[in-house]
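Exam prep: given the inputs below (a chain plus adenosine-5'-monophosphate-propyl ester), describe the expected output before reading on.
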Amino acid sequence: MSAFLSQVEAVAPSEGFRESANVRNHQLYEYAGKNRIAFWEGCAQTLHWYKKWHTVMDWNPPFSSWFDGGRLNACYNCLDRHIGTKIENKVAFFWESEEGASREITYKDLYQEVNRLANVLKSFGVKKGDCVAIYMPLVPEAVASMLACARIGAVHTVVFGGFSSEALRSRILDANAKVLITADGSVRKGKLLALKDTADPAIEGLTCIEKVLVIQKEKNSVSMKEGRDFFYHNELEKAEEYCPCEEMESEDTLFILYTSGTTGKPKGIVHSTAGYLVGAAITTKLVFDVKPNDVYWCSADVGWITGHTYVAYGPLANGMTQVMYDGSVDKPKKDRVFEIIEKYKVNIFYTAPTAIRLFMKWGEDTFKHRDLSSLRLLGSVGEPLNPEAWHWYYKHVGSEKCPIVDTWWQTETGSIMITSLPGLMDMKPGSVVKPLPGIEAKVLDDYGNESKSGYIAIMSPWPSMLRGVHGDTRRFVQTYWNKWGGRYYFPGDSATMDEDGYFWVAGRVDDTLNVSAHRIGTMEVESALIEHEAVAESAVVGIPDEITGQAIAAFVILKEGREPSQELADSLKAIVVKKIGGIARPKKIFFTQDVPKTRSGKIMRRLLQDLAVGRKLGDTTTLENENLMKSIESKIENSP
Ligand code: PRX
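Solution:
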């Protein structure tokens, strides 16, 4: 495999890009390789500190702390330090809605809004260390809410607006959020996504939520509970215009973000203030080759880590101008994304492979009338970018002049770990290239030996690494640190390294799926299905999908007396949407009478995957009942 991979033809960055790139030689890699801690210390020096740290890094495996003794504020670094400079009047966000409404928000506008909002939160009783939940569409107010929390030292937990009421409730409860910031709604695919209506049952009867702040975006009517619910704009108008920044300790929590794991319960990934911000700021600057007049567009929603690091904290800490689009990629037409690139003269475009494959399916003719000449750099994140889609993206979107940074990282890593610096390294379509300066990553086998094929391992701590799983230290240790006896971080991805040291990510090795670059736990979907009154047992697997990378297939065993039907399949899909959200809707439901298990009772998902995609069955020798597969196979053929 690795010999094959090294034969993939490398693509050099265009001369034009290389000549004007910020990083044009390998000195940074060499320096960081020899002086890793000093490298990170240098990165930290680019931020504003109230008090300097006394220790750069402390490592008591698996717990690290960075910049101990230092004091800073993340909001100050994203806003205040730009005020009074040229950046003050620069556009922070060009915002565009699905229906074509647009707004321009300068750094000064954002600063003023965040100050008032921080005062509103304070008036609601939010104090340093309290948690605020944010359940919003992709609007600048969502970023303002995150920054307002950071300003007063509150911890934010953003819940993606596509999550269901129950998913929101469980996250609010786990994080013990005191205030919820939401919106009346947002239009997606021409339909109203009524966030406040979804949030109402989520917080019904919860004692932790004391106040709810509601943005009136769509001006639809929402029910407001007297004394608990307040309209955002009314409260902001009344608020004082300046709110001082709280001086935070480096290791104070900046946010908690939930991600799926191998159990039914999502994990609250905890990120620190200083380490996270250092990682976010430096990787944005290096990977996106930031220039002062760039217009940058990362299409991620702030409900995901990509939106936290590469829409909120990283770009704002670098004083960048961004595009923010709250809508679907084909509304009103399939050239919508390219219309926006043309309109705002976007220079850097960062998106997920699932979107690239969709554009590729629609074909380049759908946007050939659009002028994309402003683009100079392209990015990809969230799942493997297959070589075919890579070549298409490079040729038809980037006109063979824009390097592609394929960035490998995770909610847990906080910032990009493995990718290329775009003016410096050759790309290989399908490879995420090499660890960034300051990151020590390798491919290891099960025993912790370096190997050409195995798992990604991060060999030493880095500033933006997760600090834990909220309220569950055991899970933190077990999930990420048990693989190699607590020595190295285990991200859960398998990978290959070729002769040139390039990384090729194969995918997750745990029971999580990657659907449209969103991680979903098989157990989460199984737990949702089992709540249907007709279901006795279920087993969920990922199947390859041309557009979304993976799609969800569910094998369902019905209770005695229940018969498979199309109606039942639809209602099973609906219960998953209700429990988790639209992103987890199974593509296929197979009714079966049993699922294959090992003698120790573990579901053999690999075999179910073979069945779901009609592949020849793999090894069945560990199966409890070897004849079972034949009977399942015949049953699923008859599933509706
Ligand atoms: O499997 C890897 C995949 O996405 C996982 C992380 O998911 P999440 O925490 O939701 O964060 C997504 C956005 C950073 C990883 O464990 N992944 C992420 N980026 C890539 C990738 N797989 C291949 N290539 C990538 N560039």
